């Protein structure tokens, strides 16, 4: 016993609130809004705080300088991911990218993602899908504007992004083989499963954990969801294999994600199984759809609430595009400086992944003089860092100007990866930085530019904008965002011209 006490005392762990025996700090956190609850709990103890969730040790990081230490300086120690029951079930035992351990599998999957699936050339190749889907959303908005009807922007965005990502992953065929809404429902369910810990994750090794999860129905829900998605993915893979065999000589204008992955498996470049393909599809659908949709919704909510910023963004977009009626990505986007600032400011206040994706330490480490043990869960609170008064002047205000470098707040911050600016990290940083960053960024700019160019936006009578958030791995707005679009170019817009 004296030996244990001595070891405990010599372990200089970061400060933190006292927990209870057995449950640790579990009773002090709210899993449905983990980023705010962690912030409230850890703020009195400083930017690095230890917690305990059952048998799991965790640290929470809430300052830009320590985020830099974790995600850049000591990235190699902090670049693992915890693999809890839900993640394991949904990712075929962590053989995807997002929940894979830092190992050869992760390196291969990441290489496939960046070189073969979402390289700049490939992102260009599915530009027509993007344009097509944006155009059809604009047509919906145009019709609503003509009949003075409101639009639920959350629904519109979700539908639009789902269509884009489903077409990128499966080509046009998914429509024929399965009911789209069922799959979308399953993807939503995956999102929810991914945030909640099972009893067996909280107290690993205890025999009753698995039993309680089973009794509570958690395991059967997980099993059903993963099996349903698995059979949907398998059906599509089989279809692709049959069609590709029939047409093996013919030139294909667009290869979807399954085509590319099947070809890589055939060429034996990587040791790719059907399970790898399905795990990759899961990542792309879960990570790619909601993040962009949520950001556009937050941006529009903030702009409606800040009419001056809305007017400035609209003037810029309308000046740059002129009366052409059509956004040209290459020509117009680089000139939309204020719009880019609006996007950064939105992500500062409402980062779609407020705690990034949790990390896990690969070995013992020292941060800020404190010891952090191997296999500690690490949460980097991007939401709290974006609102830290030490980094941001008037952090609670929506001020896109702060990014323009010509206001009282003169910070040229970017979120493009190899940065020094850890005050703004909506895409994470280091080895595990979001590999879909440029795809996501283009989508955000294209969508917002089109919305602001074509329409003036108002709130229906009796509606107010709220900023409540909903539980999930992505931070969504809880309540509907219903807006009234009004055509700006009364006589010039022809929806058939595209967006
Ligand atoms: C607004 C758009 C997006 C945001 C804000 C976002 C944010 C993030 C964040 C914070 C992470 C964790 C990074 C870390 O741990 O340091 C991440 C990881 C990831 N994202 Fe994104 N993301 C976006 C769009 C996308 C898109 C469009 C795709 C796919 C086409 C994608 C695919 C992924 C994948 C596969 C990972 C796991 C990377 C790894 O663990 O190595 N994301 N994303």
From TrEMBL:
<keyword id="KW-0560">Oxidoreductase</keyword>
<dbReference type="GO" id="GO:0005506">
    <property type="term" value="F:iron ion binding"/>
</dbReference>
<keyword id="KW-0349">Heme</keyword>
<protein>
    <recommendedName>
        <fullName>Cytochrome P450</fullName>
    </recommendedName>
</protein>
<dbReference type="GO" id="GO:0020037">
    <property type="term" value="F:heme binding"/>
</dbReference>
<keyword id="KW-0408">Iron</keyword>
<keyword id="KW-0812">Transmembrane</keyword>
<dbReference type="InterPro" id="IPR002401">
    <property type="entry name" value="Cyt_P450_E_grp-I"/>
</dbReference>
<feature type="binding site" description="axial binding residue">
    <location>
        <position position="434"/>
    </location>
    <ligand>
        <name>heme</name>
    </ligand>
</feature>
<dbReference type="GO" id="GO:0051762">
    <property type="term" value="P:sesquiterpene biosynthetic process"/>
</dbReference>
<keyword id="KW-0503">Monooxygenase</keyword>
<keyword id="KW-1133">Transmembrane helix</keyword>
<comment type="pathway">
    <text>Secondary metabolite biosynthesis; terpenoid biosynthesis.</text>
</comment>
<dbReference type="GO" id="GO:0016712">
    <property type="term" value="F:oxidoreductase activity, acting on paired donors, with incorporation or reduction of molecular oxygen, reduced flavin or flavoprotein as one donor, and incorporation of one atom of oxygen"/>
</dbReference>
<keyword id="KW-0472">Membrane</keyword>
<keyword id="KW-0479">Metal-binding</keyword>
<keyword id="KW-0732">Signal</keyword>
<comment type="similarity">
    <text>Belongs to the cytochrome P450 family.</text>
</comment>
<dbReference type="InterPro" id="IPR017972">
    <property type="entry name" value="Cyt_P450_CS"/>
</dbReference>
<dbReference type="GO" id="GO:0016020">
    <property type="term" value="C:membrane"/>
</dbReference>
<dbReference type="InterPro" id="IPR036396">
    <property type="entry name" value="Cyt_P450_sf"/>
</dbReference>
<dbReference type="InterPro" id="IPR001128">
    <property type="entry name" value="Cyt_P450"/>
</dbReference>
<dbReference type="Pfam" id="PF00067">
    <property type="entry name" value="p450"/>
</dbReference>
């Amino acid at each position: 016993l004296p030996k244990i006490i001595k070891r405990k005392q010599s372990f200089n762990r970061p400060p933190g609130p006292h927990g209870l025996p057995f449950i640790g700090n579990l009773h002090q956190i709210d899993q449905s809004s983990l980023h705010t609850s962690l912030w409230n709990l850890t703020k009195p103890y400083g930017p690095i705080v230890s917690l305990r969730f059952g048998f799991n040790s965790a640290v929470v990081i809430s300052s830009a300088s320590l985020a830099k230490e974790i995600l850049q300086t000591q990235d190699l120690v902090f670049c693992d991911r915890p693999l809890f029951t839900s993640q394991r079930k949904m990712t075929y035992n962590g053989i995807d990218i997002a929940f894979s351990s830092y190992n050869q599998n992760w390196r291969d999957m990441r290489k496939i993602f960046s070189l073969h699936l979402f390289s700049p050339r490939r992102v260009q190749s599915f530009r027509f899908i993007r344009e097509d889907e944006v155009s059809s959303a604009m047509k919906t908005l145009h019709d609503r504007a003509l009949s003075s009807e409101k639009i639920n922007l959350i629904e519109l965005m979700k539908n639009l992004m789902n269509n884009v990502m489903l077409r990128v992953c499966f080509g046009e065929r998914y429509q024929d083989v399965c009911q789209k809404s069922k799959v979308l429902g399953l993807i939503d369910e995956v999102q929810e499963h991914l945030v909640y810990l099972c009893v067996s994750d909280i107290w690993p090794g205890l025999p009753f954990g698995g039993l309680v999860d089973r009794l509570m129905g958690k395991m059967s829900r997980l099993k059903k969801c993963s099996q349903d998605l698995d059979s949907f993915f398998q059906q599509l893979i089989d279809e692709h294999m049959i069609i590709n065999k029939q047409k093996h000589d013919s030139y294909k204008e667009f290869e979807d994600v399954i085509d590319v992955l099947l070809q890589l498996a055939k060429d034996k470049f990587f040791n790719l199984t059907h399970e790898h393909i399905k795990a990759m599809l899961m990542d792309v659908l879960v990570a790619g759809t909601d993040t962009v949709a949520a950001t556009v919704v937050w941006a529009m909510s903030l702009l409606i609430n800040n009419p001056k910023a809305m007017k400035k963004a609209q003037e810029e977009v309308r000046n740059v595009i002129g009366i052409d009626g059509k956004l040209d990505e290459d020509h117009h986007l680089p000139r939309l400086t204020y719009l880019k600032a609006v996007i950064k400011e939105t992500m500062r206040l409402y980062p779609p992944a407020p705690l990034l994706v949790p990390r896990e330490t690969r070995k013992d480490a020292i941060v800020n003089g404190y010891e952090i043990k191997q296999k500690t869960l690490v949460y980097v609170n991007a939401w709290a860092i974006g609102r830290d008064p030490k980094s941001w002047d008037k952090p609670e205000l929506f001020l896109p100007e702060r990014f323009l470098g010509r206001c009282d707040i003169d910070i040229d911050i970017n979120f493009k990866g190899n940065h020094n600016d850890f005050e703004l990290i909506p895409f994470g940083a280091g080895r595990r930085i979001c590999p879909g960053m440029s795809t996501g960024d283009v989508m955000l700019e294209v969508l917002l530019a089109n919305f602001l160019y074509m329409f003036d936006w108002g709130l229906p009578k009796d509606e107010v904008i709220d900023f409540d958030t909903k539980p999930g791995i992505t931070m969504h707005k809880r309540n509907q965002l219903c807006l009234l679009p009004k055509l700006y170019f009364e006589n010039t817009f022809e929806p058939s011209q595209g967006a």
